[in-house]
Automatic annotation (TrEMBL):
PANTHER family: PTHR33525, RIBONUCLEASE Y. Residues 230-425 form the HDOD domain. It comes from Leptospira ognonensis. This is HDOD domain-containing protein.
Length: 490
């Protein structure tokens, strides 16, 4: 896929067409990277996740439609014959969905195709997904029913609770599309499905002006009230933070304040003696520990200590969130050691990764079962991140909630940015993008290790940046750093 050639076609208002026999997860990864280019060129980067989610759903539907017709042909069944259709569909899950990895072999080089088309007119972008499989009367009725049902929902929570049609493993797909387009400001009327006796074509038009809806839900109100009610960071910690930020502070004064807090003293000594600082001799005093870790790392330790104290006190010990965060922080330090990073971000990488998911505490505290359902819905898939689903469910995602907490507790700008954009590094301010990209990669590697995400869900450009764009190389790297992580956490 030649990105520059496609951008050149769009600049001259030519239609760009990419043809497939079967759209693989690797090709979806390329499409995502292409959309970052295309939407960036159109100054609509904020819509990348929405457009990609819609196009991926349409491409998957086209894959399934072609696979179904290929299966009917191989079984000598007439898809237009009601009896044959019922017979073929009774085995659809078993012979198609459950053997999905085999469908590429059946379709590659065959008579069925899928096309992704793009065209720019003025400042409007037109997308289309086309496949040469006309929709049957029964399929069209089911599609129209889902689109009609989607009009009844304002958020994803209602849809999850109500939509039960899982025929052909389609599930919530078309409902998700309608909600996404409506809530993003693109408009559900900008999506159309056309069919004739030769092909099916789904079109999406992204207009020049989009005004996202303000999603208001009971969950959103409850969470925002929860943020308002959270206490500030403990005064004993903010006092030390102020001393760290004061260039005239005396190390003995700082050490004296830390020694008043036994738990903080233990954490500081543990940090100063860790492999991260590679000391030749054991650090035994607080003032020596301060000199080893430096004031920036000490300040970061204070933020972590304060957040953990508040979160564990308010919501109990959510060990699954902290375990993921600890792993992510270790992976981030590993990446920092393997790749050259600027002095500006080296001190903040580990704590940014450790605190990147603080917004999840709020989501899980108000409705743990629902947000676990979202995670399960995407677990192990290459469907990208779940933040869009969170936004559709309550109007806020966990990175946005984390940023609100960071603002409440007066975190430094670099830490707030890392938390807010760790799922969308391409949206981060340019001067902090290296930091956010490293936290993003550490998070995705952790998700891969925890079977939450597949390799092809990861941004292709960033994989290339870290020389991890080969799946086997990436898998070996994750195994290596995971072994190191476990060895240091015995």
């Amino acid at each position: 896929m030649n990105f520059q050639e496609i951008i050149g076609q769009l600049e001259t208002a030519k239609e760009s067409r990419i043809n497939y026999y079967f759209v693989t997860e690797e090709q979806n990864q390329e499409i995502y990277a292409l959309l970052v280019h295309v939407m960036g060129y159109m100054d609509k980067l904020y819509l990348v996740e929405v457009v990609f989610t819609v196009l991926k759903e349409l491409l998957m539907n086209a894959n399934k439609a072609n696979a179904k017709r290929d299966y009917f042909t191989r079984e000598n069944l007439d898809i237009q014959n009601p009896k044959d259709y019922q017979k073929g569909m009774s085995l659809f899950q078993e012979n198609i969905i459950q053997k999905w990895s085999e469908q590429l072999e059946h379709l590659d080089g065959g008579s069925f195709y899928i096309s992704l088309l793009m065209k720019v007119e003025a400042k409007t972008i037109h997308f289309a997904v086309e496949n040469n499989a006309p929709i049957t009367t029964e399929e069209l009725a089911r599609v129209n029913k889902r689109i009609e049902v989607a009009k009844n929902y304002n958020d994803l929570a209602d849809a999850f609770a109500d939509v039960s049609d899982s025929t052909e493993s389609a599930g919530l797909g078309l409902v998700l599309i309608q909600l996404l387009l409506k809530n993003s400001g693109i408009g559900s009327d900008k999506f159309r499905i056309h069919t004739n006796d030769k092909l099916t074509r789904a079109t999406l038009t992204v207009p020049e002006v989009t005004t996202p809806l303000e999603i208001t839900t009971n969950l959103k109100t409850k969470i925002l009230n929860e943020i308002d009610g959270l206490p500030p960071l403990p005064h004993s910690l903010t006092k030390i933070i102020q001393l760290c930020n004061n260039p005239d502070s005396d190390f003995n004064m700082i050490a004296g304040e830390i020694e008043k807090n036994p738990a903080l003293s233990a954490d500081l000594l543990k940090l100063s003696n860790s492999a991260f600082f590679a000391n030749r001799s054991q650090v035994g005093s607080i003032i020596q520990a301060i000199k080893v870790v430096g004031l920036k790392n000490l300040r970061n330790l204070l933020y972590v200590s304060g957040v953990r104290k508040i979160m564990d006190g308010q919501y109990g010990k959510m060990m699954d969130v902290w375990e993921h965060s600890n792993r992510c922080s270790f992976y981030a330090r590993y990446l920092a050691a393997e790749h050259t990073v600027t002095n500006k971000i080296v001190d903040i990488i580990a704590v940014s990764a450790l605190l990147h998911d603080i917004g999840k505490f709020l989501l899980l505290s108000v409705d743990r079962s629902f947000f676990k359902k979202i995670e399960t819905y995407q677990r192990g898939s290459d469907s990208g991140n779940s933040t869009l689903l969170e936004e559709m469910a309550i109007g806020l995602s966990h990175p946005q909630l984390g940023a609100l907490l960071a603002e409440k507790w007066e975190f430094p700008a670099d830490l707030r940015v890392a938390i807010e954009y760790h799922h969308k590094p391409f949206m981060a301010p340019a001067d902090l993008r290296d930091l956010v990209e490293m936290v993003y990669m550490a998070n995705m590697m952790s998700d891969f290790q925890e079977s939450k995400k597949g390799f092809y869900a990861i941004d292709k450009n960033l994989l290339a940046k870290y020389s991890l764009d080969d799946k086997e190389v990436f898998t070996k790297a994750v195994k290596k750093v995971e072994a190191l992580y476990k060895a240091t956490n015995v």
